Amino acid sequence: MTDIDKKLQKRWGRKFKDNRDWHTYNEQLVKRGEYFLALDFVENWDKELAWMNVGKVGALYRFPKTLIELQALWHAKRVPYRMIEGMTQDLVRMGSMPEYNDYSTVNRRINQLDFRLAPPQGKRIIVFSDGTCLQAVNGGEYLREKYGKKNRRWIQIVLLGDVEHHEPISYEVRLVPASESESTERQTTTLLKQNIDIAALGGDGAMDDKRLWNFCDEQGLLPIIKPDKNARNDTKCTSRNKEVRLRNKLGHKKWAKRRQYGHRWPATEGINSAIKRIFGEQLLATSEQGLLHEAASKVWAYQRIKRYGEA
């Protein structure tokens, strides 16, 4: 065994054993692609418009919400609005759709959508939280070197993911990066008010905030939060003191195994990675409001196509 092999073995430990049903999982991934051209809603085009226009004041809707949601999915894939108009025109020419909307209508209607996530599935769910960023300025290395770091802006997303279903259940998008632990507390509070049955709340070292530990105690949630390496065990936060003592006694690896801290990877890191791989890390919008709305659409779109693939 070479020195490099020894270092890799020491760094990564035992070889990962994948127990997934790859045939089923592969079919789910293939089926996700169908959602980008799912035109079942066309059969109910007139009925949906009639329902949407009941009691509406002013000009009536000409295009159903399901069409706009499909176009929002295309835009989350970084397809510009004018290209979306061209794609819709082609579907009309093929007879798959009765009418197309121009790019300005697409833009206006997508910006009116509420990218709220569907409620989580199951009970006593375990939730992990993590933050990530999407790139708001598409300039390359030359621009950053010439004009400095101010040329590079990021949109922060703090996401809560479900351990069992590996999907996002809540998120916050912010133009200016803020405390991930405070965002996690706000989102969890909102979920609890919606009677979402949460059993445990976890996160990496960025969540090691005494306020979040106390919040878990108040709400009866099991905290699965990684304490700081040099954390004290004699503070006023009782639950954190207990966890620090347990971690120091067992060591990080055994503590992580007992608390199932490893579930953080598929519940947060895996979701963030999938969103960026499928929908890209860069944003097309230029206004601040547009950047936030587009970032939200990527999280919403990922949950939609994932559930469609599993249906």
Topology readout:
Elements (H helix, E strand, L loop, with lengths): L2 H10 L9 H11 L12 H8 L12 H12 L4 H13 L9 H9 L13 E11 L5 H7 L6 E9 L4 E8 L5 H14 L4 E6 L6 H10 L2 E4 L12 H13 L1 H8 L4 H16 L8 H23 L1
Parallel strand pairs: 1-4, 4-5
Antiparallel strand pairs: 1-2, 2-3
Describe it for me?
The relative contact order is 0.13. The mean pLDDT is 89. This protein has two domains: 74 residues, no CATH class; 168 residues, Nucleotidyltransferase, domain 5, CATH 3.30.420. Strands 3-2-1-4-5 form a five-stranded mixed sheet, sandwiched between helices. It is α/β, with parallel strands linked by helices and 311 residues long.
Write down the overall geometry.
elongated
- Number of strand elements: 5
Which range does the strand content fall in? Answer: 5-15%
Kindly state the percentage of residues in helix.
Answer: 40-55%
Oligomer: single chain
Q: At the first level of CATH, what is the class of the largest domain?
A: Alpha Beta
Q: Regions with pLDDT < 50 over 5+ consecutive residues?
A: none
Provide the succession of SSEs.
HHHHHHEHEEHEHEHHHH
The computed structural class is alpha/beta
How many DSSP helices? Answer: 13
Q: What's the pLDDT, averaged over the residues?
A: 89
CATH topology-level fold name of the largest domain: Nucleotidyltransferase, domain 5
CA-CA gap between termini? 46 Å
Q: From the alpha carbons, calculate the radius of gyration and give it in angstroms.
A: 23 Å
- Name the strands of the widest sheet in spatial order: 3-2-1-4-5
Largest sheet: 5 strands, mixed
The domain tally reads 2
By CATH, the architecture of the largest domain is named 2-Layer Sandwich
